[in-house]
TrEMBL record:
It comes from the Eukaryota. This is Uncharacterized protein. The lineage of its organism: Eukaryota, Viridiplantae, Streptophyta, Embryophyta, Tracheophyta.
Length: 372
């Protein structure tokens, strides 16, 4: 099985837009008349990624919209997907230079030597992007929704979710067809306590390394080098990177309940920026937004952090209603508590279902459950 193909950038990747790295030395322009909410900044830097890089040194046109994103290949793929949808929907954004992509390095990207739970948990991949949004360095922020805390910073809103990708987890190994085929003592790498606890619950003989961090390419490289015998990655990310050839098998929802909001992209803007809110409203996929809202209500009720193994998934069932499934586990996987709800596929009903499921599992778990 081939690992680590270089993601190929579409031929129009750098057309009708630009890319910059926040923190570069940028010329200052007075654009307050065109952008009343902020004093705009324009600049072009050079970013290093696993895709083509082009420097627009001579560009002078002020971008109509600046997209803030992390710099990983997956984050950039999500930013380009957002850009392409905006360009297809709004002719003025399809003009040369109308959209600029701004790369922002987050705390979660800077500190890779420690487990996420040890360096702060919530907001590790969003804090600096939120700050750039509030400082008017960007106009919209593109996030993986499973990285977004259940609270949003003041003066920001998240009115848009793009259509959700496959929510399942992918099993990847060079020596085994599935988790069940791994010999006792095999090392499985993951950065997710949710995955660790569910793996150990079913396969307690495996050795799960929980600080298996880095972007998709880094994790696949570590796998190929024999650091671990297997790993689990979100299938959604592999699909967005066109890297599904690396998938050994796909885990069912019954075998591995996904993270809250897994596979969903969220786009935020400032609450006083009506123009950006209008742009984002045109991209919103309401079925995804409602499902994610249900799952996040569940997570918020549990007050989950990176130290808490929590999983939740809401979808439309064959009757058109919402089916929600939730799970909490002890970190060592010895105890797993699950619940489910069925109700109307409507915002208020789905929020209530998520909260009610969270309250039930809190009650069943009891004091000290998550420290076991």
């Amino acid at each position: 099985m081939a690992l680590l193909p270089s993601p190929s950038a579409p031929s129009n990747l750098w057309k009708r837009g630009s890319i910059s790295l926040l923190g570069s030395s940028l010329p200052s322009l007075n654009t307050s008349a065109a952008f009343p909410n902020c004093r705009r900044k324009l600049g072009v830097g050079i970013t290093k990624a696993s895709i083509a890089v082009e420097q627009h040194a001579q560009e002078t046109k002020v971008a109509l919209l600046r997209i803030g994103t992390r710099g990983s290949p997956l984050a950039l793929a999500q930013a380009y997907e957002t850009r392409d949808k905006l360009m297809a929907t709004h002719p003025e954004l399809a003009e040369e230079g109308a959209i600029q992509i701004v790369i922002i390095k987050t705390t979660g990207d800077k500190i890779l030597s420690q487990p996420l739970a040890d360096i702060g948990g919530k907001g590790l991949f969003t804090k600096e992007i939120d700050e750039a949004l509030l400082n008017c360095d960007i106009d919209i922020a593109v996030h993986s929704m499973k990285d977004v805390p259940t609270y949003l910073p003041d003066k920001t809103i998240l009115p848009c979710n793009l259509p959700r990708e496959d929510v399942r987890d992918a099993f990847i190994s060079l020596s085994a067809a599935s988790l069940a085929d791994l010999p006792p003592g095999s090392v499985v790498g993951t950065a997710s306590l949710r995955r660790k606890s569910q793996i150990l619950h079913r396969y307690p003989s495996l050795n799960v390394q929980e600080n298996f961090r880095g972007n998709v390419q880094t994790r696949l490289r570590k796998l190929s080098e024999g650091v671990v015998l297997a790993t689990l990655l979100a299938l959604a990310g592999l699909k967005r990177l066109n890297m599904t050839e690396n998938v050994t098998s796909t885990l069912s929802i019954d075998d591995m309940l996904p993270a809250v909001a897994q596979g969903a992209i969220g786009i935020a803007c400032r609450s006083d920026d009506d123009k950006m809110a209008e742009y984002l409203a045109s991209l919103n996929h309401e079925e995804t937004r409602l499902a994610v809202s249900c799952e996040r209500a569940f997570l918020e009720t549990l007050d989950g952090s990176c130290r808490t193994p929590i999983a939740g998934y809401a979808c439309r069932n064959e009757d058109g209603n919402c089916l929600f499934r939730g799970l909490v586990a002890s970190p060592d996987g010895t105890r797993v508590l699950e619940t489910s709800r069925v109700g109307p596929y409507a915002y208020d009903d789905m929020i209530k279902m998520g909260k009610d499921a969270g309250k039930e599992l809190l009650s069943r778990a009891g004091p000290g459950f998550f420290s076991s």
